[in-house]
Structures are given as structure tokens and as C-alpha cells.
Amino acid sequence: MTEGIAEAAVTEWMKAQIPTLEAPLSFELITGGHSNLTYRCQDASGQAFVLRRPPLGHVLESAHDMSREHKIIDALQGSPVPVPKTYGLCQDKAINGADFYVMGFVAGTVLNDSVIGQTVGASDKKALSEHVIHILCDLHAVDIDAVGLGDLGRKEAYLARQLNRWSKQWVASKTHEIPAMEACQQLLGERMPDQAGASIVHGDFRLGNMIVVGQRVEAILDWELCTLGDPLADVGYLLNNWVSPGEIENEGEGDQSPTAVGGYLSRAALCDIYQSRTGRDLSMINYYRAFQHWRLAAIGQGVYKRYLMGAMGESRDVDLDRQKEGVARRAAAALELLES
To answer: I want to staple 264 with a disulfide (CB 3.0 to 4.6 A). Which of 75, 87, 176, 259 is the partner?
Structure first.
């Protein structure tokens, strides 16, 4: 038996959605934790699928909304944005105790860090870089209303809403002084640019959330943070994760970025492609990069406090000092960008 999967009931439901399915099914947990759980399902003929469900235990449904995540991926079927094929959403909790959805399994490599990043061939890095930024252009060009995502969230005042949300998070989770956090908060409020249009915002657009084969991205994953708002927030986030060799200490990304091994397009080259294709002005992109560092610092501080207070369980293997230092590095990186 696989924890989190009522195998018999789920198999019957999947057979109704996928006529070619051949029982029995095997289930394997791919990713777990406090985020949504991802399982690989394989039938007797070798067909592979992916099932996504919320974490086990008591969770806020609003934070793990399967119908919302499924709706986004389903809406992007047939678009230039590569997403897995969707097979169905189950909202009958009698089947598996929680909502879940099933999509196609996409084979390939997820470039989670610089160790895996070294597996990308030197001749593939430039083309892969270009494909990543072109996909972001395609995502931001999607007609929100035409694909049925116009009600996904508020389109206006994205930065103001985000600044308000994460300022409250910082205040609620603060355990020690980090002057750069307050300094950034003030500067982000004072220098906030006008929002140039609204688009789908992925919210976590980086190589670590993509399935790659050679020079191409075969699928964009992890849409749980997706909303509507300022497209340049995605650009700033991607650039922060697009680390060049030798700048790791400044960025605070460490070896988590596959691009740190070198050979990929520069940030400037990515920006040139994005500006050329979308017509959007990136002259204030450092603001968006600073905002994303500051936002992740606020999120990281919340995680730090929960571990510090024991809310995540005593057995969790976490280096509290490293987590604390990571928050400070993020805040410092944000302030440096705002002052540059």
C-alpha cells in the first residue's frame, strides 16, 4: 500500500478517465513534504501518469487547491506553454480522502541544482536558455480570458498586494533584527513601478520546476503559486535563480542554481530576448529582483521561526544557523539591488 493513495478506489476512478488504462496500477511517491504530494502511477502496459494531491494530515484547502492547479494546467493545453496532458480532476473525497488530479508523465531531467546542471551538454546550454525565456514570453502572452483564467485572481495592484502580504508575514515571524528587511520594505514601497498590464504569473518559474530533454523544456511544473498580476515579477524571479559562476556569495543562491556551472546565456541576454518579444520595458528589473529576494527572505523567516519554535517537529534535520543566515543574505541581496 502507498500512503496517501487508496489504490483500489483510485484505480477504478482512473480507469473511468483513461480508457486505455490496464490494471493493476503501481504507485510511487516522487515528491512529498509540506507541499502537494506527487505520485508516479504506472499501469500493466507500462503507461505512466502523475497524480497530485494535498499533503497528508490537516491542511488549509485554500493553500493546496487541487482544482485551481488542475484548472491552470488544463487551460494551457494546446498553448505554446509546455504542460503535461490532463486526464481529470476528482473532487469526491470518498475516493481518496482529498481532491486529486491526474496528468501525463513527462520523461526528462529536472535541473534542481548545479550538480545536476553539469549533466547538460555544453552545446545544449545556449539553446535551452533561449527556450526557457521564450516560454516565459509565451506564458505572459496567453489571453487570460480566452483560456478561461480571467477569474483566477485580481489582475491589478499585484506589487502592492504582495508587499502588504509579506510585510505582515515578516512582522508575524520576526525573531531578531535584520535592518535590511525594514530598509527594503520602505524602498520597495517608495519606488514601486506602475504595473504594465496583467498576465499569468507562474510564481516559481525556474529550471528546478521544468522537465528538460536536451535543448528543450518538455513541461513546466508546480503551478500551485500561480496567479494573475505583474509579469515582470516572474522575470525578476527567474533572473535571481539564473546565477553565474563566481557570484554565488552575492546572490545567496548557493549551489541550488544549475546555471552556476556556466555556459548558459547571461541575464542581460535573457532580458534582451524578453524585451524584444514582449515590448515590455525592463529598465526597472532590479526592483523586481529585489522584491523577489525580499519576499523569499520573509518566507524563509517564517520557516525559520516555525523550526525554532518546534512547530515542524523535533526530528526535522535542519541547520537553523544556515536557515537564519539565508534570510539575512536574501535581505542583503535585495538591498544591494535597490541601492545599485
So the answer is: 259
Residues in the chain: 340
The yes/no answer on whether domain 7-104 falls in CATH 3.30.70.3450 is: no
Determine contact, residues 286/340, Cβ cutoff 8 Å.
yes
CATH number of the 114-339 domain? 3.90.1200.10
pLDDT at 245: 86
Q: What is the pLDDT of residues 17-52, one digit of tens each?
A: 999 999 999 999 997 655 789 999 999 999 999 999
Answer yes or no: are the C-beta atoms of 173 and 305 closer than 8 Å: yes
Main-chain phi, psi angles of 179, to 5 degrees: -55, -30
For the chain, list residues with pLDDT below 70. Answer: 32-34, 57-64, 248-256, 311-317
Indicate where the chain has its CATH 3.30.200.20 domain(s): 7-104
Q: How far apart are CA 232 and CA 254, in angstroms?
A: 24
Q: Where in the chain is the domain with CATH 3.90.1200.10?
A: 114-339
318/22 Cα distance (integer angstroms): 42
Q: Where are the alpha helices (DSSP H) in 246-284?
A: 248-251, 267-278
